[in-house]
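Hey everyone, long-time lurker, first post.

I ran two proteins through the pipeline my lab uses and got sequence/structure pairs for each. Pasting them in order. The first:
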Amino acid sequence: MNGSRLDDFLALSRANPWELAPFQESLPDGSQVQVWDTGVICIEPAVPGNRDLVLSCGIHGNETAPIELCERLLNAILSGRLPCRQRLLFIFGNLAAMNLGVREVEENLNRLFSGAHARGERRNNERERADRLEQYVTRFFQARDGAERLHYDLHTAIRPSAHEKFAIYPFTHGAPYSRRQLAFLCSSGVDTILLAHGPTTTFSYFSAQSFGAHAFTVELGKVMPFGQNDARRFAAMERNLEHLIGEPAWRPPVLDLDQVRVFRVCQEIIKQSEQFCFQFSDSVANFSAFSAGALLAEDGEQQWHVRESEEAVVFPNAGVAKGQRAALMVSAVELTADMLE
């Protein structure tokens, strides 16, 4: 698309990190490419399949591997190398944080959904961005009924992980888990699943709860600077997303439950004050295990210990704001056929 404003959409968005006037262009195959805002681009095929797919990345600005992956997919579509056969919404989330090479500018964008951006008196650009992203996802999913709704919110983690790629399955409020979605994740190299234990203010939970979407927070490895990610480590995910986008009849291989590790949350550690500290090394990896009774963290007089025979830590971060989650403690659980649909 030589001479088009879409020739480098990510660069255009990063040059306008908080706002970009909408515009639209057409592809040779009749697809309409609609830019709704900075970092938000919708592709409407002339004859769409039965999936409405949201791919979001860069909700944390320094999580570069998913940003590069989504940019490759977008460029492949715009150049004609990848036919787009499904309605598709790309979201590059926190562009100002990308420019600074940081997780967030003022506030964690992935704690501001499901209306959290409007609570309290605090106002900032990230809260306004969360509000607009909710509106764009609403606009996208409400454009038609009857389609399968999918949202993969792609991330990388601050620290290494004993299981490099894992996904958080948002709280289902008692509904069964999707066998097909677990099969998609497993065949994409994401073979570890963490079952959320309650409602949250994450982007994936917003789509799941508000629109009945199959939505996931997908962690694809460790945070690295732009240009230092090894795309081969994400090749299975990229290949499967290409299948979803370009082949309406494609289905992932049948799920083998023996190939999936599943964890449930057994306790949540919330930072209450600036006295908060972990009782383990800052370098500990996600899913590192601790034995029963082990002291995990202290905050003034409050202490957290391992309650079960063994628990593993996920997302430990003592630097979060007061009142936010500093870590999750999880334990292995068996996912049985009666829990699936």
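...and the second, right after it:
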Amino acid sequence: MSLIRKIVLYPFAILLNFITSIRNLFFDLGIFKEYTFDYFSIGVGNISMGGTGKSVLVSYLADILNDKYMINILSRGYGRKSKGFQIANKSSTPNYLGDEPFMFYKQNQKVRVGVCNRRREGIQRLIKSINKNSKNIFILDDVYQHRWVKPSIMILLTEYSKPYFKDYLFPSGNLRESRNSARRADVIIVTKCPSELPIEERKKIISKLNIDLNQKVFFTKIKYDEHIFGKGKKLPLNILKKVPFILVTGIADNTLLVTELKMRGFVFKIINYKDHFTYTKKNINKITSFSDGQLILTTEKDYYKLQHHMNSDLLFYIKINIHFSQEDSKLFKSYILKKGKLN
């Protein structure tokens, strides 16, 4: 982040801080009313712009809880072409739901996925349509700034290489609201950590997060699946040492993925698009021409958008997972179940 940006745009950051602080104060005082509901809910969000790993955590939560509970996911549906409240069904497309909600639905079609710009309305509509005989849990994606809805547990994500305590308010930096707003979180997860993170460094990070006694902190890393997945088939990831391929990404930051693939000794070219990119026929033609008959590797959410345009046997995706240590995995799930009285 350039020093010029910090200095020149600082007055605008002060203005944003004033606006967001007054808004938060009104919620804290009860002048603006937060909507609570009778079902256990988990909010996932961040105070930074860009990819901290929210969608990967949402998928993880749905996966560890869906054995005994009916999972209902509510998202904004960023970039979708539809309006109002929509719920995923077999005829849904990425354009209809948004790329990440569509991915949640494709990962597990037993999970109910709804999208709505107005989160309070979305929750109310989802609740109306649930099977009340089931044990329902609601996961609210990217909801940290949507204070009109108050989940039972709020989880805040911050990236190891770009923690919020080193960042500044937009437009001087990339924070949506002040660092102090992290105190609203019940759980803070430091994401995308290196494989080895010494205890002493963890303690330093926790100290800088400036948490209170009631907040829990977990450290996670990204783990890539050892297979790639295509139309009705999967192949070992290491086959890419022998098979020429290109990488196509439309995510906030593809650095970790590119680094991982290069560390494995793979040689490839890259086409990179912005996050939530809507692929057009022109883009598809460019990708097809660039690949020149080679395998096309992409991310899971990009796969479904590309597949909609190019029904190719050469199109594959690599699955990205969030990884807790074995001990933290148990502690995290236990904390969630205890808070929801779900044991």
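Reply from user beta_strand_b:
Welcome! Quick read of the second one: The longest strand covers residues 221-230. The mean pLDDT is 94.
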